[in-house]
Amino acid sequence: DNQLNDNSQSSSFDCQMMQRCLQLASRASGHTSPNPLVGSVVVQAGNIVGEGFHPGAGKPHAEVFALQAAGEQAKGATIYVNLEPCNHYGRTPPCTEALIAAQVAKVVVGMVDPNPLVSGKGIERLRDRGIEVIVGVEEEACRQLNEAFIHRILHQRPFGILKYAMTLDGKIATSTGHSAWVTTPASRHLVHQLRSACDAIIIGGNTVRRDNPQLTTHGTSDRNPLRVVMSRNLDLPEDCQLWHIDQAATIVFTETNNNSQLRNQLEAKGVEVVSLTALTPQSVMKHLYDRELSSILWECGGILAAQAIADGAVQKIMAFIAPKIIGGQAAPSPVGNLGLIKMTDALKLENIKLQTIDSDILIEGYLNIE
Ligand code: AOF
Ligand code: ZN
Fold this sequence. Notes:
This protein has 370 residues and is an alpha/beta fold. Helix content is 28%, strand content 24%. Helix 9 links the parallel strand 9 (250-255) and strand 10 (272-276). The longest helix is centred in the N-terminal third of the chain and has 15 residues, at 12-26.
């Protein structure tokens, strides 16, 4: 249906090279927001002669590094890139002009850039200059890698992931609130890796008071996401792990003029406190969008999770399920009241992926609500 998309000429070699692009792109995972993850490979006579990836916003794009590495051998070569080459002057000059100048013969593109500044214009420009362009190779994998970037650019909001861990009987803690740990070390390790790919983690005041969490990647990565607390009244402990900003930066969102004594204490420790006139999941997401963040991990309890879902701040769910039973009417579950009455009203996840991690199950899926 899209005239730009033409992958009828693509081969399994093309798919292999595109997978390599995705691998290269992933090296900058967690470092590129608001920009996408992009990798590129230059192939001359069946051999890779140059590789590159986009290291972060403000730095050169993937194609530029790949062309640089290929040098003279770029001439007449095929270049692979998981995102359409840009044709605009952003923080950096257009990649299309670099490709034209290098005299590549062919460009294989994973997916059209959803950025309205580019979207199809890069491909058009290359074809106008007589360069063969194939579009839509390994497109699903390309979309998956950049799902946060795509959402951000199409909706002007960061991409929200709600992650939780529950027992087989649907509890995220005991009736006293004790929750260490529901899942196996292997699942928790995966969560630490997931954190390193995200720009921020959000929790509410209840989780701070109850768990005193660290919300870091625990050494699985060279970076930690921004830690975000939503607390209307600022009724938070004076001392907790999140205020140790030598570990990672922390922002507390609150409503205007609350508990100025604690606010002063937090600010003295280097914790940023932001007052919003109305503290809602969307107002926080908007603020984080304006700060150029792309992917947000909701690791909150059920009450805030329900608010985030109802407010359209959650696009993806990652549910870890442990084969354990804790029981108890008062033991909390992952999602609070959504005001839904009939089972037919249930929010249904799409594009479900199931996997086992040690003895746990991870179910991932997408919420299709705005
Ligand atoms: C590419 N290759 O490696 C990336 C692209 O401000 P700039 O100059 O960095 O441009 C950012 C936009 O360029 C970004 O929103 C996306 O549309 C595209 N990113 N394009 O050809 C790359 N990172
Ligand atoms: Zn570019």
